[in-house]
Amino acid sequence: MALLEVRDLTIALRADGEDTTLVQGVSYQIEPGETLALVGESGSGKSLSSLAVMGLLAKELVVTSGEIVMEGENLLDLSDEEMRRRRGRDMAMVFQEPMTSLNPVLTIGAQIIESIEENLGLSRAAARERAIELLKEVGVADAERRLKQYPHHFSGGMRQRVMIAIALAAEPKLIIADEPTTALDVTIQAQILDLMARLCREHGTALVLITHNLGIVARYAQRVNVMYSGRIVESGPAAEIYHNPRHPYSEGLLQSVPRLDQDRSVPLAPIKGSPADPFMSITGCRFHPRCDYAGPICRQTAPDFDGSVACHFPLDTQQKDAS
Amino acid sequence: MSAPLLRIENVSVHFPVHKGLMQREVAAVKAVEKVTLTLNQGEAFGLVGESGCGKTTLARTVLRLVDPTEGEIWFDGQNITGMSGKSLLPYRKRVAAIFQDPFSSLNPRMTAGGILSEVLRVHRYEGDVSARVAELLQICGLAPRFADLYPHQMSGGQRQRVGIARALALEPDLIVCDEAVSALDVSIQAQIINLLTDLRKRFGLTFLFIGHDLSVVRHLCDRVAVMYLGRVMEMAGSEELFDNPEHPYTRALIDAVPNPDPLSEAERATTALAGEIPSPLDPPSGCVFHTRCPIATAQCRTEIPEAVTVGPDHVAACLAVSERPVSEKTT
After folding, report:
1. What average pLDDT does the segment B188-208 reach?
2. Which of A95, A94, A21 is nearest to A61 (CA)?
């Protein structure tokens, strides 16, 4: 059974009694221990849909339809209090900027110990022991001394290690990491992602990895959801999508990134135009203004997502027609 | 081979750290340490490295926004190191900059047209200013109506196009790009990379491109220098550097970049570099990289490696490198 199943999730921004839909009909599953990547550009809804899973949407953002089912229970039916308990124990989130997610006026120790006491119901002394254990596990040397220090004593990479320790404290079944290494240097990024991958493997934790970096997806994720303008446009095993993209947007993204193993003299093939403005209404497929393959139907009717792709003319059928 | 346009000679930049009531100088951040490099006319030169490696400080030194503590900068046969005020004006006309965040480098109270015509007026442009503004926008792929838009009315990619138009306004010879495409979405980044490549060909521009994304730098630049804690670790032509990296730091950097290809990634055995980047306030002795280097020896702790030639137009500053024949490759 899937650990988490998101069904037809739709999220809107409610302002002045008017709803603007920002995420539309997002459906996906994640199995225990699996790493699923959500990839897309700004405004694609990858962060919003994940915040909804965590029950952390801002007040103005409302889930207008859909279900988020974790182990047979719809999280959207839970009270705030029940959801808060779930968040510590069953699922945790790691954010991009560890400086803003840690409290600058509390020691690292106070913050880790607090979350352990809260989520595991341990005594202070036992929680402190566990905190030291966790810091060691995430590669923070000299853990006892480091517990007494404040976040500003830590480098960006070390702060992210602390966030991972906090996320892991209760051995959750699911971790959502939202651009966890975007603010870090490449060698530190590799350390942190290797660490997360190893820990998730050892603990059997499922990981939702939100990123815009197609290289990271290729190295760390088994399955991918490609998102564009609040919708999943393509979903499938990473190897398949990278080598045989079916949605023109997936293909465009892959052709936009320069690669280390590519002939430098060949120009990149960018997608024309800019990512769709979430507040602009677009009739038909939201990608059609940027799509080289769009036909009349794409301008009129939004394509349905069939579990693999949301496109009137998926690329493989097109190639068949052409030949 | 074309003539050198810019020559950075043995340049160091130290920022003093002051402390106490008397503001005594207690230490210095050695942001750039004895860097020598040459940019030939019409080439794109890349500086890569992680935080604190000095790439941005070096770029700012070239722009004369920061003064070098020692060393000289020569531009088109002229030593510009000691110049100041008015004597720098001709240089400022010939050297332009594009920055990372187009939102903070464009005046929010000015339209794109205003921003561009200001540059032209400051430098006493003699032609028709509004015609030139329209031309610049067109060169950068923006419709004429953008002249009347404010930065907040544009997308990130459009703002960066205005930033590029501003850099081109005075027909410079050299453009310093500091992380010029880093803040952009993948699909937009590719558009701007292609625009920069086209403009370079069209106007015969020389680029000093500072970036942390190795794939982008490799794609855009003909030659690349890898910096770490203020020093150049390795320098070579783009293909040569990425195909035959000699310095252990360059290798680690390349290893750290995942390729957007799940199949090749599955076969790739990479080991992340251990440890943190040391503080430039107190850099390690000897080779600055020795604290993280997988092949460091006792000698590396005391001896500062000189740059040695390891191939055609390829130098590396590593004690292990001179001892290894160039053809031998370990992967």
Report:
1. 96
2. A21
SS3 A48: helix
A183 in contact with B, Cβ within 8 Å: no
CB-CB under 8 Å, A41 with B219:
no
Q: Do B260 and A262 touch (CB under 8 A)?
A: no
Q: Is the pLDDT of residue B306 over 80?
A: yes
Q: Which 3 state secondary structure label does DSSP give A37?
A: strand
Across the interface, which of B219, B239, B260 has its CB nearest the CB of A218? B260
Is A72 within 8 Å of chain B by CB?
Answer: no
Chain B residues with CB inside 8 Å of A267's CB? Answer: 194, 197
pLDDT digits (tens, 9 = 90+) for A177-232: 999 998 888 999 999 999 999 999 999 999 999 999 999 999 999 999 999 999 99
Rounded (10°) CA dihedral B40, B195, A227, B146: 140
Which residues of A are less than 8 Å from B214 in CB distance? 186, 260
Which residues in chain A are closer than 8 Å to B292, comparing Cβ atoms? 187
The whole-number pLDDT of residue A248 equals: 97
Does the beta-carbon distance from A214 to B194 stay under 8 Å?
no
- Whether B217 and B257 have beta carbons less than 8 Å apart is answered as no
CA A118 vs CA A17, A82, A114, A126, A173: distances in Å: 38, 13, 6, 12, 17
Nearest CA to A310 out of A208, A232, A197, A201 is that of A232
User: Tokens standing for B188?
Assistant: 């937009």
Interface predicted TM-score of the whole assembly (ipTM), two decimals: 0.88
Contact B299, B213 (CB under 8 A): no
Closest in A190, A218, A290 to B261, CB measured: A218
Alpha-carbon distance A123 to nearest alpha carbon in chain B (angstroms)? 33
**Interchain contact, A242 vs B255, CB within 8 Å:** no
Considering all CA atoms of chain A, what is the largest pairwise distance in Å, rounded to the nearest integer?
70
**CA dihedral of residues A186, A189, A190, A192 (deg, nearest 10):** 160
Nearest chain B CA: its distance from A254 CA (Å): 8
> From start to end of B65-166, where are the E strands?
70-75, 78-79, 95-98
Q: Report DSSP state, residue A267.
A: P
Q: Could you say which architecture CATH assigns to the domain A4-90+172-322? A: 3-Layer(aba) Sandwich (3.40)
What is the average per-residue pLDDT within A312-318?
83
| Domain ranges, ordered by start, for chain B | 245-331
Q: From CA B207, how far away is CA A299, in angstroms rounded?
A: 42
Size of interface A-B (CB pairs under 8 A): 140
C-alpha B191/C-alpha A253 separation (Å) is 12
Distance between CA atoms of residues B146 and B61, nearest Å: 33
What are the chain A neighbours of B142 within 8 Å (beta carbons)?
Answer: none
Residue pLDDT, tens place only, A78-135: 999 999 989 888 999 998 876 678 899 999 999 999 888 888 888 999 999 999 999 9
